[in-house]
Automatic annotation (TrEMBL):
Entry keyword set: Flavoprotein, FMN, Oxidoreductase
UniProt-recorded name of the protein: pyridoxal 5'-phosphate synthase
Record lineage: Eukaryota, Fungi, Dikarya, Basidiomycota, Agaricomycotina
Pathway: Cofactor metabolism; pyridoxal 5'-phosphate salvage; pyridoxal 5'-phosphate from pyridoxine 5'-phosphate: step 1/1; Cofactor metabolism; pyridoxal 5'-phosphate salvage; pyridoxal 5'-phosphate from pyridoxamine 5'-phosphate: step 1/1
EC annotation from Swiss-Prot or TrEMBL: 1.4.3.5
UniProt organism field: Russula ochroleuca
Length: 232
């Protein structure tokens, strides 16, 4: 029996006290000048150790100030920001349209590290979305056309929509490739950070936290960052 969860019919009580001990000592004076340098180091060292290190929690906020969070996949990161792809009519995209600010969080349990990104959100160019869309497997490209992401849907409706899309693009059973254009309602968003926080778990909750803050707003080219240690 798992002794870390209290067996009770009407609630779940988690009893375990996880311990963390990351290999890092984050010292603001000895860090790369830009958060991308440290992110690159952490992300590449997570590969091979962490399952799906590119999975990140994305929080958006509606026009009414109600937040919502879901997991999406990081597809590119560079000096301009963190890019993910989605349906532009989805709940997340409508919230970004109304309030173009978002937060991302990565949690890499195997290495006891977390990264938070906060920033403004902009659409990537259509050329970037087209290039990424072309790289997706055929089934995912069909799905992007067929799914009205975040809308309510009847049982079986998605299969019908997929069949309609296959008919529209002349895709036959067994086809492994087809020329399908990028739908207007689909593409990438770029989170342009003005804050990136790195968290390294330590014993007794005395974690190491360092925050990069954009000194003059994210528009400066290249952005100037200040680093600060945060209390755990
Ligand atoms: C591991 C994982 C990766 C995902 N990646 C994406 C993604 O890159 N893009 C996307 O639109 N949805 C992705 N999803 C689905 C989203 O979590 C979410 O269900 C969907 O985007 C609809 O969100 P919304 O209704 O809040 O807009 C992923 C889910 C999981 C669990």
């Amino acid at each position: 029996m798992d002794t870390t969860i209290q067996p009770s019919p009407d609630k779940i009580v988690v009893l375990v006290h996880q311990q963390y001990d990351a290999p890092d000592h984050l010292s603001p004076s000895a860090l790369p000048a830009s958060p991308l340098g440290l992110f690159r180091h952490w992300f590449t060292s997570a590969q091979g150790t962490v399952n799906e290190p590119e999975a990140m929690a994305l929080s958006t906020v509606s026009a009414e100030g109600i937040p919502s969070t879901r997991i999406v996949l990081l597809k590119q990161v560079d000096n301009r920001g963190f890019v993910f792809y989605t349906n532009y009519n989805s709940r997340k995209s409508r919230e970004i349209d109304a309030n173009p600010h978002a937060s991302l969080a990565f949690y890499w349990r195997e290495v006891h590290r977390q990264v938070r990104v906060v920033g403004r959100v902009e659409k990537v160019t259509r050329e970037e979305s087209e290039a990424y869309f072309r790289s997706r497997p055929l089934g995912s490209r069909i799905g992007a056309w067929a799914s009205n992401q975040s809308a309510t849907i009847a049982e079986g409706e998605l299969d019908q929509q997929i069949n309609q899309i296959k008919d529209r693009f002349g895709i036959k059973e067994g086809d492994v490739e087809a020329d399908i254009p990028l739908p207007d309602h689909w593409g990438g968003w770029r989170v342009i950070p003005n804050e990136v926080e790195f968290w390294a778990g330590k014993p007794s909750r005395l974690h190491d936290r360092v925050r990069y803050r954009c000194r003059e707003g994210p528009q400066t080219d290249p952005p100037k960052w200040i680093t600060e240690r945060l209390s755990p």
